[in-house]
């Protein structure tokens, strides 16, 4: 399945993509069209973010631009430059589904989308647009506007429980996070003998999928086969993850289509909606409720911090006070950061890797048995999903860093402003365990929310 492509008609061989690619998946001579080697590509889309070769209405004229836009199956309302390195768009499929009266369309959007989408509508970099985005999604015509932040909280319940079990019962350690599909793909391709270190938890997107088509179907009184699950992601690799054949715990493919933040911008404009002027609306309940812990999944260190907030309670049976919730030791943007966190009698040693370019020395330590960690978070993109391959694109390095800084600040501010900041305190999370899943890492959640990997 082609997810990322380099268009030979447009590529000038500037090799910006080659320099940024963490897996050396792009080959070619300088000044000549580059070739993407699919076996090595983890579909992170960082090449898409850096590509500077394009066709545009202004520079190349209406005819040349329209031909390329049609070839990429993009709506005629798209006016933005089209770049050589790009993700294959599934927007046309989604528009067809929205027009099909037999489909019940359910949308989720990832934590990082709400701090990126407004940039495409002239609002300042890093504007938090949860309410405007919920309003726009409803106006587009989605039957339910649910949220990946809800399933990020669910991920913490499962992953936190799995970690505590591995630590206290002698399971395989260190445990690595599994919510970044590009990282999972990297491990399966390059180090299959080590995939037993990955958490068995699906990513938030893939936890939401079966939950919406089973529990959500009951809430909405709709048959699962009518539900069309749509994901809006900052991530180009999520299309690959959704298409993995084992991602069908609901009895159907759990996620039907994935679009990026950039494509959501195209869709909102296609529908003639001005996101910037929309009054705020809420997500639909209960599967649109979330805490600050779910919100911080969008930044590097966020999954770790969210897991620590709930892990503390799982281990000690006590609650952290509001002033103790900021685990600043795991924040930052260094490629590899470590911290030792005291939780009751246990000192939990954690590590955070951001940007897959930094992973090989850590893998070497893992192989040598010298990686002194219980739990390691890995995100492929430079500063986590706020910098994902599907986020709004900025051509200058200065503007891009400015956007990253402001998106990160907006995510942490959102966490601070939310009334609840620990996943296990969410009423919707308590409800789904009481009514449906029973308990974290129990039989039902293993069936729906956990997975397995390719291994040797
Ligand atoms: S998508 Fe990522 S891994 Fe694939 S070629 Fe582009 S930068 Fe490299
Ligand atoms: S860091 Fe986030 S956006 Fe980047 S590949 Fe991983 S999940 Fe996707």
State the shape: globular
List ligands, each type once.
Answer: iron/sulfur cluster
- Rg, Å, rounded: 21 Å
Distance between the termini: 23 Å
Strand order of the largest sheet: 8-7-10-11
Q: Got a strand count?
A: 14
Count of separate DSSP helical elements: 17
Kindly report the average pLDDT value: 97
Tell me the β content: 5-15%
Low-confidence stretches: none
Structural class, from helix and strand content?
alpha/beta
Describe it:
By secondary structure, this protein is α/β, with parallel strands linked by helices. It contains 17 helices and 14 strands. The strands form 5 sheets. A 4-stranded parallel beta sheet has the order 8-7-10-11, with helices on both faces. It has a 4-stranded mixed beta sheet with strand order 9-14-13-12, covered by helices on one side. It has a two-stranded antiparallel ribbon with strand order 1-6. A hairpin with a 2-residue loop joins strand 12 and strand 13. Helix 6 packs across helix 8 (204-213). The protein is globular and about 70 Å long. It starts with a strand and ends in a 7-residue tail after the last helix. Residues 4, 20-21, 23, 25-26, 36, 41-47 line the site of one iron/sulfur cluster.
Summarize the helices and strands and which ones pair or pack.
Blueprint: E1 4-6, H1 16-20, E2 26-27, E3 35-36, H2 46-50, E4 54-55, H3 57-71, E5 82-83, E6 85-87, H4 91-98, E7 104-109, H5 130-140, E8 144-145, H6 148-169, E9 175-176, H7 181-190, H8 204-213, H9 215-220, E10 227-233, H10 238-243, E11 257-260, H11 261-270, H12 292-295, H13 302-316, E12 336-343, E13 346-354, H14 359-368, E14 375-379, H15 397-417, H16 427-437, H17 443-449
Parallel strand pairs: 7-8, 7-10, 9-14, 10-11, 13-14
Antiparallel strand pairs: 1-6, 2-3, 4-5, 12-13
Helix pairs in contact: 6-8, 6-13
The structure holds iron/sulfur cluster (2 copies).
One iron/sulfur cluster (SF4) binds next to loops.
């Amino acid at each position: 399945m082609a997810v990322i492509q380099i268009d030979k008609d447009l590529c000038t061989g500037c090799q910006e993509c080659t320099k940024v690619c963490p897996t050396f998946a792009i080959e070619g001579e300088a000044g000549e069209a580059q070739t993407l080697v699919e076996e090595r590509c983890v579909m992170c889309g960082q090449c898409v973010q850096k590509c500077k070769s394009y066709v545009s209405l202004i520079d190349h004229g209406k005819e040349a631009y329209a031909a390329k836009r049609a070839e990429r199956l993009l709506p005629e309302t798209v006016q933005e430059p089209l770049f050589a390195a790009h993700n294959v768009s599934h927007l046309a499929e989604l528009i067809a589904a929205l027009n099909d009266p037999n489909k019940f369309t359910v949308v989720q959007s990832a934590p990082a989308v709400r701090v990126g989408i407004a940039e495409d509508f002239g609002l300042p970099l890093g504007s938090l647009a949860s309410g405007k985005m919920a309003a726009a999604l409803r106006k587009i015509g989605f039957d339910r506007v649910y949220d990946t932040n809800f399933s990020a909280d669910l991920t913490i319940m499962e992953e936190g429980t799995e970690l505590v079990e591995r630590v206290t019962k002698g399971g395989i350690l260190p445990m690595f996070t599994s919510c970044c599909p590009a990282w999972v793909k990297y491990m399966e391709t390059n180090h299959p003998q080590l995939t037993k270190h990955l958490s068995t938890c699906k990513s938030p997107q893939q936890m939401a999928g079966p939950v919406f088509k089973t529990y959500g179907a009951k809430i909405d009184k709709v048959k699962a086969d009518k539900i069309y699950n749509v994901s809006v992601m900052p991530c180009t690799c999520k299309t690959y993850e959704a298409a993995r054949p084992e991602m069908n715990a609901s009895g159907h493919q759990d996620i039907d289509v994935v679009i990026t933040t950039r494509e959501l911008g195209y869709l909102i404009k296609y529908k003639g909606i001005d996101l910037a002027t929309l009054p705020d609306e809420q997500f639909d309940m209960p599967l649109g409720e979330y805490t600050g812990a779910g919100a911080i999944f969008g930044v590097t260190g966020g999954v770790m911090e969210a897991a620590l907030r709930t892990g503390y309670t799982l281990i000690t049976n006590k609650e952290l006070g509001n002033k103790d919730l900021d685990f600043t030791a795991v924040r930052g943007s260094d490629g590899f950061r470590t911290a030792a966190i005291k939780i009751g009698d246990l000192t939990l040693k954690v590590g955070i890797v951001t940007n897959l370019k930094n992973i090989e020395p850590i893998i070497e330590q893992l192989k040598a048995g010298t990686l002194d960690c219980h739990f390691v978070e890995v995100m492929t993109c430079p500063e986590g999903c706020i910098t994902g391959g599907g986020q709004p694109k900025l051509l200058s390095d200065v503007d891009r860093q400015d956007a990253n800084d402001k998106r990160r600040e907006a995510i942490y501010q959102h966490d601070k402003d939310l009334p609840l900041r620990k996943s296990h305190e969410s009423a919707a999370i308590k409800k789904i365990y009481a009514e449906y899943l029973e308990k974290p890492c129990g039989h039902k959640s293993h069936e729906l929310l956990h997975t397995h990997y390719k291994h040797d």
